[in-house]
Amino acid sequence: MLTDKSIVVTGGTGSLGRKLVQRMLSRENGKPNKIIVFSRDEAKQHAMRLKYQQLGRATDEVIYRDLERILQFQIGDVRNYHSVCSALQGVDIVFNAAALKQVPTCEYFPYEAVRTNIEGAENIVRAIRENQLPVETVVGISTDKACKPVNVMGMTKAIQERIFMRANLDCPNTRFVCVRYGNVLASRGSVVPLFHDQILRGEDVTITTTDMTRFLISLDEAVDTIFAALKEGERGETYIPRIPSARVIDIAEVLIGDRPIKTKIIGIRPGEKVHEILVSEEEGHRTLERNGYYVIASILPEVRGAMKIKGALGKEYSSEDNIIAKDSLAELFGKHGLLVEDEPKFEEAK
Known about the structure:
The chain has helices at residues 15-25, 42-58, 62-65, 67-70, 81-87, 103-108, 110-131, 152-170, 191-200, 219-232, 248-256, 281-284, 301-304, 326-335; strands spanning 6-10, 34-39, 71-75, 93-96, 137-143, 175-181, 183-184, 205-207, 213-217, 238-241, 245-247, 263-265, 277-279, 287-290, 293-296, 317-318. By secondary structure, the chain is α/β, with parallel strands linked by helices. Helix 1 (15-25) links the parallel strand 1 and strand 2 (34-39). Helix 11 packs across helix 14.
């Protein structure tokens, strides 16, 4: 699937981008010809480069002996059309992981979210279309917040999905597909690192509401979804993983364990939903099941073609459904090394 392919990962220094690069370097899907980490953060690129250089000195694996040839770093921003054009020269596959994704930040700076999440996607499409670049596949990485969006982050990601869906008509030689999933465990901006920090400081763990639920997915499962879309997805399709969900208060209590730490209800932050949705009721009639994933066919009949779809879902796919029990949640967190191991240091009461 990736053998001899040249690949760009926009936002390649983020949590998902780093995991995606690591998995591609493992050769589980073939040996790439080149992987370009494209991002605007030079410090993170430098740290990532040093990490792989150190691995190269510490291992005899063949993949690390030619890292200098395979793994490349390019400073740039998806907001800038010219830097996107430069990054996409001679590329076969694009994974668009660049995003402004923190919900409150996007609420306070909505146009900044537009520039990255919408204009960034359009710059990728425009670069391919106007320069007739022979890109084979673009995978847009979206979020459950794009489904029936109520916040700026979700709204901009929903538009990004539609930009990539439409691009299948404008760039007939390139396949555009998307993936959409929920909260990535332990990624920056998620609740797990926040709760860890509060617990280790001996502070109250802040909960928005007692009934809030969220989908849970590991970084590896997120990458699995991306690879499934790349391998099997048809033009204009959106891949949805079938994943568990949990009450946020259960997450907090599992991480707290038997520590003398309380939870504190602070109310919903700007732009938050109580429950998230991965597939809306309106999308259900064009959703099918394929190899363990839900797959949403394009909303555009010109892209979808004449395929007949027997809707796999009779209702929306919500985080309110199939909530994982607390003991299973603790087992899941233990499996991924997310339980708080170090005892927090409590200050003397004043």
